Amino acid sequence: MNTLVWVLLGILAYSAAALLLRRYGLLPSSVSIQGPFTTIHTKRGRDFIDWIATPKRFWRAWTNFGLGVTLIIMVGMFLFLLLQGLFILQNPPAPSAVNQPQNFLVIPGVNDFLPLSVAPEIVLGLLVGLVVHEGGHGILCRVEGIDIESMGLFLFTLLPLGAFVQPDEESQRNADRGGKTRMFAAGVTNNFAVTIVAFALLFGPVIGSIAVAPGMAVQGSYDGSSAAAAGIAQGDRITGVGGTPVSNESSLDAALAATDERTLQVELNGGDSAADRETRTVSVRRSLIVAGSVAGNPANLSVGEEPITVSQVNGTPVHTQSGFSEAVGGSKFASLTTSRGTVTIPIGAYVTQVSGDGPLANAGAPTDGSVIVTAIDGERVTSSSDLDRVLDGTRPGETVPVELYDDGGLSTYEVTLGENPNDGGGFLGVGLFPGTSGLLLTDFGVQSYPAGTYVALLGGDGGPGASSVAGALASSPLSAVYVALILPLASLVLGIPNFPGFTASVTNFYSVTGPLGFLGSNVFLLANVCFWMAWINLQLGMFNCIPGYPLDGGRILRTSAEAIVSRLPVSEPYTVVRTITTGVGVTMLLSLLLLVFGPTMLN
Question: Which sequence ranges are marked TM in the entry (predicted)?
Answer without folding.
Answer: 6-24, 65-89, 113-133, 192-213, 478-496, 516-536, 576-597
